[in-house]
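Hi everyone, sorry if this is the wrong subforum. Our group has a chain we'd like a structural model of before ordering constructs, and none of us has done structure prediction before. Sequence below.
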Amino acid sequence: MKRAYYSSTISAFCNQEPNEILGQMTRAHSFDLTAFQTAAWVEQTILLRECLLEHKGKIYFEFSIPRMGRRIDAVVVTESVIFVIEFKVGASTYESADLEQVMDYALDLHNFHEGSHNIKIVPILVATKAPAIEIMLEDDELLSPICCNNKNLGSTINRALTTYFKHLIDCNEWEASSYKPTPTIIEATLALYNGHSVSAISRSDASTLNLSETSKTVADIITRSKADSQKSIIFVTGVPGAGKTLVGLDVATAHVDPDDELYSVFLSGNGPLVKILQEALARDKVTREQAVGKKVRKGDALSEVKAFIQNVHHFRDEGLLDLLKPPVEHVALFDEAQRAWTKAQTVKFMREKKNSPDFNQSEPEFLISCMDRHNDWAVVVCLVGGGQEINTGEAGISEWFEAIETSFPHWKIYLSDHLTDSEYAAGKIVSQARKNSMVTFKPELHLRTSVRSFRSEKVSLFVKQLLDLDEDAARENLSLIHDKYPIVLTRDLSVAKKWVKKQARGSERYGMVVSSQAERLKPHAIDVRVKANPVHWFLNDKKDVRSSYYLEDVATEFDVQGLELDWVCVAWDADFRYDKIHWKNWSFRGSKWQRIHKSERQIYQKNAYRVLLTRARQGMVIFVPEGDDGDHTRPREYYDGTYHYLKRLGIRSL
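Answer:
Right subforum, don't worry. Here is the predicted structure as tokens:
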């Protein structure tokens, strides 16, 4: 992939006419160009020629950052420093949003571009008409943004090169090095919807099963099913954060062709996730259209994206309107398919909420029946996470198999033999499936490694070991993690907040998460009964008090499942407490804690903490309150066991 509109050695660039450079960039640009953009490119070119005459290396204009769906104005690789430069031609002030933007670009290279990992990166914001600011250089691999105008950019570059001279960068080696991004699900959705491939925005190294390989396997099954007029169901499994949703979104965007009457839909029962992705896509579409001088109403943008990403319950309700009419989509992808409702839960809901007293199917059975209405072919893709059931009535994966075996024996089944792993609770069913001629096992359909955290792939395993009380394994695993992925512990909430704020740079998102049962954190101004709006919490910026950045509103497992933040503060209440050798499950009712005895609810609660502890991409702080012996609902003994257990695993205390 050509990463930049223009790239050249610095010497060739300095000897080339600006109009030639402009012509090359114009040809690479696929959208309508404004006069302001072309004028800005010309001014950037002239300014950088003056600054770089005495230097060697390479220069790139409009350098692509696929993960963010953005382009860096200029990247200069010279001597021993990488300069990431964002121009604001004609600007007379240095705006905080622009400083954040150039920092994000530098972070992307630092974190995801292999050739940039151990090289000094200097982000520079150039507001050409702004006043000069005294330059402060830091002793850090990745500097904070430097503010320059059109007069002192050259001297800033020279000073940085003098200060940070080490070994020379091999520009060809740098350019050829791998780009291994791990986008958030929001970033991935935006990139895929705007035409990037999963291979462009995901890692492809040997330590992980390539997401594009899994996507290709699913795509091949869809192609074969269409050609053979066959109905197929595919189970894509993986550990938390392995990229199952990313695979689903990639398949959904790739299988839309109105000319061939091919439509796909990405479905999720995760209401917050659906709303956040729809809102993010709509905002992005409005912004992109405005950037090229077009006007689009946000409501119209929302209507368009809702055809692509839908709440599974809306899809179900549409299927109830006409029990014979097939949906327009031939491919339906169900995210978090293990959360589909059991027969008992679905029947209860349909009778009480939908006035359907005769309804007698589980949610998986009805959803498959909707796709089975097609006379020719159909494909259902189930994206399955292990140990993710957190709500009453969620069936796990077994209900899907039972529906196929009972009602749809003509459907072909594709899955990985790793579906037998304990978290999926499907071992017995899969053993029976091995005897079924309609079942095909494909190892590519299981994603074994978490890519949520680019800092460490072992975080989800550590959380599993922590929750399973496998102390020795957890302690050993943590020793391999902590240098790249800090996990710290504190009993002071203010310390936890300061730590998480200090870690974040640029627009890296941080927030506080708690269990939905954590009702005795109120003395710390954490009230789970006050529901945060997940759209504002995940998408709004640092100036908005409703955003996660403020660390005031908290999100529960229901708000954050399927999503992630860069840095997380996990507030741990007495609802799930360690008591010498076991976890004890409690629910706060009225004015006291009550034991949870039902094994199903105990599993939900354990899974809730699994979700909370696997939300952070870069690191987390765990806050366990001191408790108060003067409050019968919060004595110290309710919290001390958990704190000392976590500390015993080797988690560093602040």
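For your construct planning: The first strand starts at residue 4 and ends at 9. The chain has three domains: 4-176, 210-270+309-447, 459-653.
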